[in-house]
Amino acid sequence: MTLWKPHRVNEICIEMTKSEIKLPAPKAIIFDWDNTLVDTWATIHDAMNTTLSHFGNETWTLHEARQKVRKSMRDSFPTLFGKRWHEAAEIFYDRYNTIHMKRLKTLEGAEDMLRSLHSEGIYLAIVSNKLGEYLRLEAKHLGWDAYLKNLVGASDALNDKPADDPIHMALSGSGIKAGGDVWFAGDADIDLECGSNAGCIPVLIREENPNPGEFDAHPPACHVKNNKEFKELVYNSLD
């Protein structure tokens, strides 16, 4: 577990002994979905290249897909496919719908982490730029809807991530307001931006260390490598 030195939220990171980090205890934690809790890059890459090929565009490597896929479809496809973006969306989802359940894989430690934090009474929710219909279907398939209160996907809120609208929707009915009592955990810059926009504590979960300058605009309060480390980070805050 490593301390990332953010520009604006450094004051809430308290370095403890044995390199442990203590953040304010969360009343709620909102997670990104794809590649934070489940591994879906192969599926997204396949469906994206199917769509690009249909329009005669150059396909992407997996590395390129990981760099380019951030925004929701309604925010990204008009730029990629112009006036035919609705047609492109149909092609993408036709392919995605065919393969996503067969290839859905959970990331190591994710289920144990969700189960444990749910047992602590922490409000858990999802904000994703995946279409809400598919998001909720995948969560139900895994049985994780038992741990997660609200699952907010693309087009569910007035605006998608990185706007803060889906965070407020995810917290609706909980009695918890967005702010320092809420953590937002994800693997990409758009997640950190979304959490910061709502005044929440942004936490980066990914194996790779941040590159110099990568998160200067919206730095994470902390960086952990995986869901096991994230669970430890939460429990450190509860002590």
Features:
six-stranded parallel sheet, DNA polymerase, domain 1, 239 residues, Rossmann fold, globular, alpha/beta, two-stranded antiparallel ribbon, 2 domains
What does the model show?
The protein is α/β, with parallel strands linked by helices and 239 residues long. It has two domains: 10-39 and 106-238, HAD superfamily/HAD-like (Rossmann fold, 3-Layer(aba) Sandwich); 41-103, DNA polymerase, domain 1, CATH 1.10.150. It has nine helices and ten strands. It has helices at residues 41-54, 62-68, 73-81, 85-103, 110-119, 132-142, 165-171, 189-197, 227-238, and strands at 14-15, 21-22, 28-31, 38-39, 105-106, 123-131, 150-154, 182-186, 201-205, 222-224. Strands 7-6-3-8-9-10 form a six-stranded parallel beta sheet, sandwiched between helices. A two-stranded antiparallel sheet has the order 1-2. Helix 8 links the parallel strand 8 (182-186) and strand 9 (201-205). Helix 1 runs antiparallel to helix 4 (85-103), helix 3 (73-81) packs across helix 4 (85-103) and helix 5 packs parallel to helix 9. The longest helix has 19 residues, at 85-103. The two termini are 17 Å apart. 40% of the residues are buried. The model is unreliable at 1-19 (pLDDT under 50).
